[in-house]
Design a protein that fits this description.
Two copies of one chain form a homodimer. By secondary structure, chain A is of the alpha/beta class. Chain A has two domains: 5-126 and 304-333, Quinone Oxidoreductase, Chain A, domain 1, CATH 3.90.180; 130-279, Rossmann fold (3-Layer(aba) Sandwich). Helices cover 25% and strands 26% of the residues of chain A. In chain A, 52% of the residues are buried.
């Protein structure tokens, strides 16, 4: 065991603006041995998520920041290679917060066993994992979509947005996605069944939304913040619900976050804006996974992953995420299955 | 009838920045005669409300803007001097949208009869009128206060804020008011029974709120927007509710409204921000009036009015409102009772 070499990305400084390679050090140490109640997991795929940027900042949040000198936090899927807990056996496939490294030692109770035969492994980091659950609880619990309502989602081809739009279609809504570039826009309409797409890189978002949302916007699932949020706020229907899931346009700002200047649209329209993080719903994860898996195996929920090879690419792959260059759930393949 | 002279303030231009006398013309015309189903009302008191600033702007809102050349919209209380509707008799005291003038012709069904013996007339424009109802529905329907929660209200000595704080006390909450100057701060604590006050003109709001809200803020009733809203957002408790009632700090801006930069606190704390206007609750006004009157006659709800004499003062009195110089509900006395 102790001969296993473990490459790790450790956070060495709190980034200002866009995260960069120099904010990490890439080191190699022995993998170590699991203690009682723990397992040693060989990481196969790592999840790249917008929330990672927030974890790098100092200060109070829903979760403690990654400490300087600590392994960068990340969700991952891997295989148990040693276990000191009766609940896990060597060979089990598990999901959990593995960190950006080849091998993770984690408490068995913080790892979730999954069936590797049911879906491609990266999907457990996407539509069947945290992003899927984020879409499920945010849209259904906060958004409370009703048949015939108009739902708009930003970052619509992304890991969360793609699931949001498909669940909204399942619930009988009119769904308009905002995505960057013709390929993503074509994908969400032709492959995922959205009613329309607005290409924020190549068309005026206000004009596009006005065309596709003639009765106003009942639900907006926001992953991006910034100008797009402001545009949507100006087009809310009465009693609209704005779900604050993320603000990827703002996470790498050098300056203060841009607040929604049109927030008084909430007043005029008796609308609400509510935020959440998926961990708020931890007690209901089994319900969410069951629903998502049911839709997936029933052919109503499609997913796509964007797989980049090699742990060593981590800082660059994370930048790719923030530049919006991934197409589907972005994961790093760390090792062969 | 037709010999009655009616002085009127008509809107002549859409103001930029602070409203000014030159945005109106002050004219005098015959009062006219009520048509079928209408009454002629002699205005006694006029209500001055922050919302009036919004009514002067062009563009879609919850209510049409005041047209250029039209009498400025305002709520008022007055006495029926002629009636062509069976529901109203000469001598009745009525509340309604009278406009900024000596005499109003209004549809009888848009006027509400009140009992002039039960309370001073200006109170029907304040704690027993729209401001009181605004406090009642905003706090109770959106805020859903629970015993022991911490409630913060801005413009706390104002017509709405003073009622919000007293209802929150009735509901068993800890109540902290934000107001400008030592007199208003002393008033809300010593007269109205708030637990604490923060004087935004003379102390650091963050430090004051931190001292008085050690467990964070569960409910914020916002009348002011701007920096104070941002400060409160950074101090929300989990599952907090921010009630967006107004943004008086922003209404006279020359530039765009300042959006709440800390809105991602909603995400971190699973909090919500919901807006409303009191007219959304029109169907429930009788319930609200009954509750407010009950508390008032039971000695649990106190009110104060700031009465300025003379219709001709209207533009200056409106400026006084936006400078926060009124102490209690601001009304103009138009004529002797």
């Amino acid at each position: 065991m102790s001969t296993l070499q473990n490459r790790q990305f450790k956070l060495t400084s709190r980034p200002t603006g866009m995260v960069k390679r120099g904010d990490f050090e890439f080191v190699s140490t022995p993998a170590g041995e699991p203690g009682p109640g723990e397992a040693l997991v060989k990481v196969l795929y790592l999840s790249l998520d917008p929330a990672m940027r927030g974890w790098m900042n100092a200060g109070r949040s829903y979760i403690a920041p990654v400490g300087i000198g600590e392994v960068m936090r990340a969700g991952g899927i891997g295989r148990v290679v040693a276990s000191k807990d009766a609940a896990l056996a060597v060979g089990d496939t598990v999901v959990g917060m593995t960190g950006v490294q080849d091998y993770a030692i984690a408490k068995a109770k913080e790892l979730t066993k999954v069936d590797a035969r049911l879906a491609p492994l990266p999907r457990y980091l996407g539509a069947l994992g945290m992003p899927g659950l984020t879409a499920y609880f945010g849209l259904l619990d906060i958004g409370q979509p009703k048949e015939g309502e108009t739902v708009v989602v930003s970052a619509a081809a992304g890991a969360v947005g793609a699931v949001v739009g498909q669940i909204a279609k399942i619930k009988g809504c009119r769904v308009v996605g905002i995505a960057g570039g013709p390929d993503k826009c074509r994908y969400i309409v032709e492959e995922l069944g959205f009613d329309a797409a607005v290409d924020y890189k190549n068309e005026d978002v206000r004009a596009g939304l006005a065309r596709h949302c003639p009765k106003g916007i009942d639900i907006y699932f926001d992953n991006v913040g910034g100008d797009i949020l402001d545009t949507v706020l100006s087009m809310l229907a009465r009693r609209a619900r704005v779900i604050v899931c993320g603000a990827i346009s703002q996470y790498n700002n050098h300056e203060a976050i841009q607040g929604p200047r049109n927030y008084l649209s909430l007043l005029v329209n008796h609308a609400l804006m509510e935020g959440f993080v998926v961990f708020d719903y931890a007690a209901r994860f089994p319900e969410g996974v069951q629903a998502l898996a049911g839709w997936m195996f029933g052919g109503k929920l499609k997913a796509r992953e964007d797989v980049v090879e090699g742990l060593e690419t981590f800082p660059d792959t994370l930048q790719k995420l923030f530049r919006g260059e991934n197409f589907g759930k972005l994961v790093i393949k760390v090792a062969d299955e």
